[in-house]
Every structure is written in structure tokens, then in C-alpha cells.
């Protein structure tokens, strides 16, 4: 009888142990997650998060806006599992990521976005040159208005000009939407915002913002380049940037599932509907004879 009791207790303990392991096992289709994103990529990030939650109703994804540099630090400090990035990390930053996350640096690229230069709709200016941008970012006149320090837009322009953000001179109006809405107060200045802020074709807020401004083509080597699908797809527009995900998740949980979803055809279709260039699929034209 004692042996029978011992066997029952052992089986019960084993069953409880297994059930606990199942509860703790990773799952890509159940649970909560927060995504950190710079304001410039918020629209496409929210659209992808909504798509994922529709496909996996037991998941809850919260999109939190944070300046790109600060979001990266939160990822390193394990305050979030996933962040949207655009800037090229320095060797020191890559080393810190690999040491803190205990993972190889493998950015999951999912979209081509851009930094665009905008002026009020009634401005006589129709384009801007790379030379004007370079000289203007070093001028005490501070004619370029950014959405803030530590922002993805400032980081990217600095990298493009092979400068550090602290070496550049610029004005600030906090928030990309505010930059666009208040730009007409400063007729001689040029706003610098992320394309995704205004790229969603049928969004009423994006439409209102587009009505206030015009996007300046950028001239380089005598050629004008625009931030349209072709300019992004062929990377000819000088300020094209690639958006990617970074995660500190070592197993296949929600972050990994979300990344995989965003890079599949369904996720890439969402990227395209956002007015951005999908990174992993391209429209193919077939001619029939």
C-alpha cells in the first residue's frame, strides 16, 4: 500500500511539473508584448501590430513611441523585447547588443522608408540640393527643423552627412506632426520628417498633413530624386533608409513570431499599403504574348 501511495504522489508531482513547463513554454500566438518605435515609424508599426493581433487574437501588442537611441538602450537593458530601428549601429553598439542580448546581430529588415524635406504648400521652393543640406546643417541660421534630438530623422541625416548629431546645427519642434502643422510660421525654414508620417494613402490625418506641405525632391550630381516607390525601391533617393527589427528574445515567442509575420507576404502587403516600399517582396510584371 505504501508503494502504491508513493507511486500516486510521484505521478501527481510529474503531472504538475509538466503542466508548469507548458505554461512557461514560449508561444508566438498568445500573450502580451510592447514594441518600441520612433514616432517616424509609428504608423507602419501599428499597422503591422494590428494585422498580427487579427491573425492571433490571443496576443496583445502595445506600440510605444520612444526616440530611437533611447529605445535601443531600453532593449539593451531588457526593458522591452523588440524595437524598430533605422540607423546603422556602430561597431561598439553592435558589440553591446550581442553581449547584452547574448544574440548575434541579425537585423530583420522589413521596409524602405525615407527622411524627407518639406516646405509649406505656398513656398516658391521646388527642390533642394545635397550641397544646400550639407551647408545648412552646419549653419548658425539653423534653417532645418527636426522633431527632436535623439530622433531617427536626425540620426539618419547625420550618418548620411558623415557627421555626429552633436556637430550639426538645427531647430526643434517636438513631434513630426507639429513640425508640419507649424511650418508655415517659419517660411524660410525647411522641415525634416519621416515619410511614414504622411505616407498612408487613405488615412485622414495623413491627408490633412499632406495638404499643408510639399515634399522637395533632392538634387545630387545634377539629377532630381523623389521619395516615391521607385526612388525607394532602387535606393536612388539619397535619404532612403531601411527599417528593421531588433529583439533580445532568444526563443520563438511573440517578438520572433511578429518579426516573421512582418517579413512574410501578408506583412509586406501591409507595408505597401502604408505607402512604403516592402523590403522582401517586389511587384512583378508578367508580359503575355
Automatic annotation (TrEMBL):
Superkingdom assignment: Bacteria
Keywords recorded for this protein, A-Z: Signal
Cross-referenced InterPro entries: PBP_domain, Phosphate_ABC_transporter
Signal listed as a keyword: yes
Residues in PBP domain copies: 31-262
Pfam assignment, any one: PBP_like_2
PROSITE patterns linked to this entry: PROKAR_LIPOPROTEIN (PS51257)
Protein's recorded name: Substrate-binding domain-containing protein
Lineage of origin: Bacteria, Pseudomonadati, Bacteroidota, Flavobacteriia, Flavobacteriales
